[in-house]
Amino acid sequence: MPEQIKCLAVAASPRKDGNTALLARQALAGCREAGAETEFLYLADYAYAPCRGCEACSKTGRCVVADDAKVIFDRILAADRLILAAPIFSMGICAQAKMLIDRAQQFWATKYVLKRPVIPEAALRPPRRGIYIATAGTNLPGVFDGAIRVVKYFFKMLEIDLTGTFCYPRVDAKGSVKDHPTALAECLQAGRELG
Ligand SMILES: Cc1cc2nc3c(=O)[nH]c(=O)nc-3n(C[C@H](O)[C@H](O)[C@H](O)COP(=O)(O)O)c2cc1C
């Protein structure tokens, strides 16, 4: 029997049960419907520092800072599917997500400096895929552009195929995404297709 697909949702907003977390849970529910094993993780439950820019990872492919970033990346690397949910703060991806993404510099170094695979056993595993989910309070033109660019870079570093971005403007108050006409159903369906 084939192994169950592992889906991990990483919720980056500090607002627990906020809009992006709700959408991430919808997507995970879709993954479960499709038969996948699921895990939900709040970045707010972990303590990790920003990248020091020390470039030690260019020599070893590993980060020298010992904190929870390792725990989070171990979960991400073990997953076959990644749902990254992170709102727009100050016209970009929220700092909690960006800080983690900067810490993924070790994978960039592994790939492009050391020319080693990020996941050596990748060929023996299901192809890794994922989606990005975001909300923003406004509908300013280009409000999601910077975040999507960063997320594309992150997924590339981690050798995950970014198959969809689900971005919802004009969603501000906590939980107000529940009133959105399509967001919940779209994220549920995206999860079913991932799982
Ligand atoms: C510190 C902060 C900065 C924000 N900056 C923006 C912004 O630049 N543009 C925007 O459209 N919304 C902005 N917002 C609104 C959030 O994107 C919006 O409320 C979103 O739905 C929050 O998602 P969450 O409930 O998952 O945290 C900001 C919110 C906070 C708390």
TrEMBL record:
Q: Does the keyword Disulfide bond apply?
A: no
GO MF annotation list: oxidoreductase activity
User: What Gene3D superfamilies is this protein classified in?
Assistant: 3.40.50.360
InterPro entries for the chain:
Flavoprotein-like_sf, FMN_Rdtase-like_dom, ISF_SsuE-like
Cite the entry's keywords alphabetically: Flavoprotein, FMN
Has the keyword Lipid metabolism been applied to this entry? no
Task: Outline the extent of the NADPH-dependent FMN reductase-like domain.
Answer: 6-114
Q: What is this protein called?
A: NADPH-dependent FMN reductase
